[in-house]
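Appendix B. Chain record.
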Amino acid sequence: MIALKITNVKQFMAKFLGSEDFDSFLLEEASISTYNTFMIDGRQNRDFYSSEEWEDKELRPYEFSTWKKLRPICFDLIKGKHTPSTFRFVLHLIPDHVASILQGGDTAVTPQQVKAFVLNIKYDGTTLMLVTGTSFHTFLMDKTPDTLWDNAVRQFLAKREISYEQL
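Structure tokens predicted for this chain:
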């Protein structure tokens, strides 16, 4: 787990909300405080779908909705004359990408053992922080996936020219 302070908040937000740069993520949850506090639960709602739709892995391949789908909604909540008081996003890397992260290192951990590679994004009114995390289906002694994910996030930000300070 690493904590990264974004040094150019405006640039980050333009990439986060206004481009496809983060579309390889799913949204677990979001909290956006502007004139109201808006909470988004990214879990797909079983009651919305028919039984056939719910079981269709092409229509609904993940437990959470994609950031790509929810990004315009979040953008609409944030845009305006005033900066949000606070916001928080919990993103998961799309599971299809987990294997490529694990291939970057010497680990016996399989993609099936990884529940999620997580990216927490938190803004407190002045500072924008990213915090990485990993979640596994069971306890693992091997911490290599944590390091691989941390390195992948740094590379992800560097490729998109997003500046940060590691704390």
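Further analysis of this model is presented in Appendix C.
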